[in-house]
Design a protein that fits this description.
The protein is mainly alpha-helical. It has a domain at 53-176: Tetracycline Repressor, domain 2, CATH 1.10.357. It is built from 8 helices and no strands. It has helices at 7-25, 32-39, 43-49, 53-77, 82-114, 118-134, 138-154, 161-172. The chain is globular, with a radius of gyration of 18 Å.
Length: 185
């Protein structure tokens, strides 16, 4: 009897396992056989689900960033004050910073190799969704998130999210430290 394959689950399983090679080696250097090896599938099976590495990268970016937006939405749902929202956002960043940093590396290298397009569109959608959730300007969201993640990539052991957040709030003035940058929605 032929085996029934859940194509969506198989595709998701491949995506689950292929972020690391892209982040570690860079989009430009990763080959389909590297992705197949990391995903634990044959190259033929990989090509069955994805026609090329560009489609894998875009699907991975879309999925990772959509997952982040949903996780933050859930984290913020139980908050009432700006201070609680800030704490929830910092917990979110702290819990997901390794995957967020890997996703950022993939997005940047994809855009470097392929040019503006799909990765930029996914990042814009992410920026806009995060802005809506946090109630702050979209460019400020990207500056904060990308800045913290770049810092994480450059100095993995030395990042104290709360200290960096407080430093930003201090620069904006002590009267706003408790509610910057997030306000209750």
């Amino acid at each position: 009897m032929p085996r029934v394959v859940d194509a969506a689950a198989e595709r998701d399983g491949i995506l689950d396992r292929c972020l690391l090679p892209f982040a570690r080696d860079g989009y430009g250097l990763v080959r389909m056989r590297d992705v197949a090896r990391a995903a634990g599938v044959s190259t033929g099976k990989l090509y069955h689900y994805f026609p090329d590495k560009r489609s894998i990268a875009v699907a991975l970016l879309d999925r990772e960033l959509a997952s982040d937006v949903e996780a933050l939405r859930l984290a913020l749902a139980a908050t009432a004050s700006a201070a609680e929202r800030r704490a929830a956002f910092l917990r979110f960043l702290d819990a997901r910073q390794d995957r967020l940093a890997a996703t950022l590396l993939l997005a940047l290298d994809h855009q470097r190799v392929e040019g503006p397009g799909a990765a930029a569109a996914v990042l814009r959608a992410y920026r806009d969704a995060m802005s809506a959730l946090l109630g702050i300007d979209a460019d400020v969201v990207m500056t904060l998130v990308l800045g913290l993640l770049a810092r994480r990539v450059l100095d993995p052991a030395g990042l104290d999210l709360a200290r960096h957040w407080d430093a930003v709030a201090d620069q904006l003035g002590p009267s706003r430290a408790d509610d910057v940058p997030m306000t209750a929605s």
